[in-house]
Amino acid sequence: MIAIVRPSSISGTLCAPRSKSDMQRACAAALLHHGVTHIIDPGKSNDDLAALDVISKLGADVAEQDNTVVVKSKGVHPFFDEINCGESGLGIRMFTPIASLSSKQLTISGTGSLLSRPMHFFDAIFPQLGISIHSKEGKLPLVIKGPMLPSSIEVDGSLSSQFLTGLLMAYSAAGAKDVTITVKDLKSKPYIDLTLGVLASFGMKVPLVKDYETFSFSALEHVQPVGEISYRVEGDWSGAAFLFVAGAIAGEISIQGMKADSVQADKKILEAIKDAGASLRYEDGIFHVGPADLQAFQFDATECPDLFPPLVALAAYCKGDTVIKGTLRLTHKESNRALTLQDVFGKMGVAIELDGDMMIVHGNLDLKGARVHSHHDHRIAMAAAVAALGADGEVIIDEAEAINKSYPDFYEHLKALGTSITLQTV
Fold first, then answer.
1. Active-site annotation holds for 306
2. Residues of the chain above pLDDT 70, percent
3. Lowest-pLDDT range, 200-214, 224-238, 304-318, 339-353?
4. What is the spatial distance between Cα 335 and Cα 375, in angstroms, rounded to a whole number?
5. Using CA atoms, how far apart are residues 25 and 421, in angstroms rounded to an integer?
6. Considering only Cβ atoms within 10 Å of each terminal Cβ, which end of the chain, N or C, has fewer?
7. pLDDT of residue 221
């Protein structure tokens, strides 16, 4: 699909999309919960749908009722020999440890860019937990056979926190006794806070956490069985970040459905919006954001690397040079986002320098219309569309359907705010 986005002034009110980070964790917890779970306001992105498919194959009965997904489960009891996590990095890293609770041999696969992303940490850790594993030289597909035998281990948290999320959920469900997971150089700590919050909400064992370095489960901790659970999925700060930047660039808008006290890492977009000088206020549960004389800013995105694309779109319209730290976290995303951002925004007249772990965006108030490619990356497509709002001509985005991975309503939401967009199938 091709998206043609024309310069536009925007206004209006939108309800942000649901968090796929929260939704996928809720799906995993619903699978592990012995009973009935009502997931309210479920996400509908490709990653969310993949998570629902995974838990249905791992033993859960899944049904939709109005704006709720009802999950009935007795734990991990796979119905199939293979599960497919789609293109979800969280899905593959979280559900693989959970699937290993079963003694059944399973093949775990994915699609798209996930096939080339490193999975060597499974090969290193799983044998220590009594799990047989075979991979394609550290890549998908994985063939595993449990059951997992939780023990004290050490894991590398520098690549992603997602594997740790899966281990924490699996250990909790396995009734882990006196065991400790020691983590070196953990990144994306707010996502672990989200995981711990979901465990607590589902009445599961929650480890004792010390400095995000040790996660200890105690045999002395007992949890009371919980009957039916209702869990409401919160708004997605990763997707909403693009709406905030759109407002800062192209006109005042109001954004509903976001938790001001959310632990999601990408809530930090509010700091960038403020530091750039855009208008921002919060009243009665609604955020209002609007344009101003935008200035360059400095931002550390090490703990929230998914913010790089909207941050670059914002920085493109700021006077001066914006410095964003954390580029080393971008290599193993849906694309190498440091390079794809450099390519896409370079075509629009914005120079981006890469210096070790730093990205320097040279603001250019006269962005050009151009033809760009999403590189099959949902966040790159959205960043290009938002940046197009203030360009001097239309921006044509090839493979624009990449947005379906996380925010399938993105273009329709921009249209609802007054953006001129034409979508064409090819």
1. yes
2. 99
3. 224-238
4. 7
5. 33
6. C
7. 75
**228 in any annotated domain:** no
What's the first-to-final CA gap in the chain, in angstroms?
A: 6
Residues 323, 197 share a domain: no
Q: What's the rounded mean pLDDT across residues 61-81?
A: 96
Q: β-strands 253-256, 286-290: how paired? A: antiparallel
Residue 49 has pLDDT above 70, yes or no: yes
**Residue 47 · residue 75 · CB < 8 Å:** no
71 CA to centre of own chain:
22
Q: What amino acid occupies position 277?
A: G
Report d(CA 412, CA 425) in Å as an integer.
15
| Contact between residue 59 and residue 130 where contact means Cβ atoms under 8 Å apart | no
52 in the same domain as 13: no
Q: pTM for the full model?
A: 0.92
Matching residue, tokens 């979280």: 94
CATH number, domain of 195, equals 3.65.10.10
Residues 71 and 171 both lie in one domain: yes
Instruction: Identify whether 224 is part of a domain.
Output: no
Residue 225 pLDDT level (bands cut at 50, 70, 90): low
Asked if residue 227 is part of any domain, the answer here is: no
Note whether 398 and 373 are within 8 A (CB).
yes
**Residue 175 confidence (pLDDT):** 82
Q: How far is CA 408 from CA 45, 135, 412, in A?
A: 6, 32, 9
Closest C-alpha to 30, from 259, 234, 228, 224: 228
Residue of 47, 48, 266, 306 marked catalytic: 306
Q: What is the dihedral of CA 135, 140, 146, 148, to 10 degrees?
A: 100
Which residues constitute the domain of residue 172?
20-218
Residue entry with tokens 């938790």: 259
Q: Give the contacts of 283 (CB within 8 A, at least 6 positions apart).
A: none
DSSP string, 310-340: HHHHHHTTSBSEEEEE-GGGSTTSSS-HHHH
Average pLDDT, the chain: 95
> Is the domain of 12 the same as that of 46?
no
Mean local confidence (pLDDT), 55-75: 97
Q: 407 φ, ψ to 5°?
A: -145, 70
What is the pLDDT at residue 331?
Answer: 80
Cis previous bond, 190, omega within 30? no
Q: How many structural domains comprise the chain?
A: 2
